[in-house]
Design brief:
It contains 16 helices and two strands. By secondary structure, it is mainly α. The protein is globular, with a radius of gyration of 21 Å.
């Protein structure tokens, strides 16, 4: 089977992203030796190591693709791409603290190794770097920096709104969440910063028209929703070995995923109460987790989630073809955008 073109593109652009990330690492402002060494230990070095240990770098690569899609050079989007990856670091560090997670990328979470206070501070530093790397960039034309920063701030606001809903529903024991509520939450928390904003930011950095920027944003929103829905499915019915300790953790954490929301609206009272009881228990018992999945499946949640993921992937593809037909993106970019949507719903991890 031939390699997905988007995966091949990720591999081609990865060295460029990794090199830029190394250059984007922040350094202490202090000049005195002792404070500088302490700052490296308590702030800069752990954050740099956390960021360097990232995954596939999908988000920064999508930022480069956004620039290339409208005929621009990828180097124009490199600094904003670094900003997006640094925001990813901040979001993950803070998420792990909020969720009281134990592992990140197979290692103990940063707040467990460095302490909650220092880890929070490291996440905050990453947020300041989102702006710093763009302001310091010499390749990005000065007149585009404000627009790029506006896009990045909007991405951050959307993510914070989505996170507020996700955490708030859990804190208040809310099981009246609707499908529309879930889709708003996931559009804000995941879709914007996973795909929509990276594509739009890259296009803005390359000097694209507002129509092209907005079109790429909409493609990214659909693809980002599909990405999260596939994430939810993998956590419930994916490869347990590939998922590792995180397998079915969404049940343990009582996540209001679409599969759960749909099932709760469809099950009879007895089964609904049983499912809610498991979701509220924080269980890690394999049999109880399996029973929850059985109930979710009986309520149609798995099938509905899968169907919606496919629908959103198709919508992203249709949006990409529409942009190409209007001459707003290149035909090569259209192929990559369609491959991206398919990768998001076909991936196994």
């Amino acid at each position: 089977m031939s390699e997905n073109p988007f995966v091949a593109y990720l591999k081609r652009r990865l060295p460029l992203v990794e090199s830029a990330l190394g250059n984007a690492a922040a350094a202490p402002l202090a000049h005195a030796n002792e404070p500088a060494r302490d700052l490296e230990r308590y702030l800069y070095a752990p954050l740099a190591a956390f960021t360097e240990g990232g995954g596939k770098r999908v988000r920064p690569v999508l930022c480069l693709l956004g620039a290339e899609a409208v005929g621009g050079e990828p180097h124009l989007a490199l600094a904003p791409a670094m900003g997006i990856e640094l925001f990813q670091s901040a979001a993950l560090i803070h998420d792990d603290i909020a969720d009281e997670s134990e592992l990140r990328r197979g290692k103990p979470c940063l707040y467990l190794t460095e302490g909650t206070g220092l880890a929070t501070n490291m996440g905050d530093l990453a947020l300041t770097q989102v702006i710093e790397v763009v302001l310091a960039d010499g390749a990005l034309p000065q007149d585009r920096k404000a627009k790029v920063l506006g896009e990045l701030v909007s991405m951050e606001r959307h993510t914070l709104e989505g996170q507020a809903l996700d955490l708030g529903w859990a804190r208040d024991g809310r099981w009246d969440v609707t499908e529309a509520d879930y889709l708003y939450m996931v559009r804000s928390k995941t879709a914007h910063y996973t795909a929509a904003s990276p594509l739009a930011v890259g296009a803005v950095a390359a000097g694209a028209t507002p129509e092209a920027v907005e079109g790429l944003r909409q493609v990214g929103i659909s693809a980002g929703i599909a990405f999260q829905l596939q994430d939810d499915l993998l956590n419930l019915v994916g490869d347990a070995e590939a998922q590792g300790k995180d397998f079915r953790s969404d049940i343990t954490e009582g996540k209001r995923t679409l599969a759960v929301v749909y099932a709760l609206a469809s099950l009879d009272t007895r089964d609904r109460e049983e499912l809610v009881a498991i979701l509220e228990d924080g269980t890690t018992n394999a049999d109880e987790l399996a029973r929850a999945v059985e109930l979710i499946e009986a309520g149609g949640g798995i099938a509905h989630c899968s169907q919606l993921a496919e629908r959103e992937a198709r919508r992203a593809e249709q949006g990409a073809h529409d942009l190409a037909s209007r001459g707003l993106v290149t035909h090569e970019a259209t192929e990559l955008l369609c491959a991206m949507a398919q990768f998001f719903v076909r991936r196994a991890s």
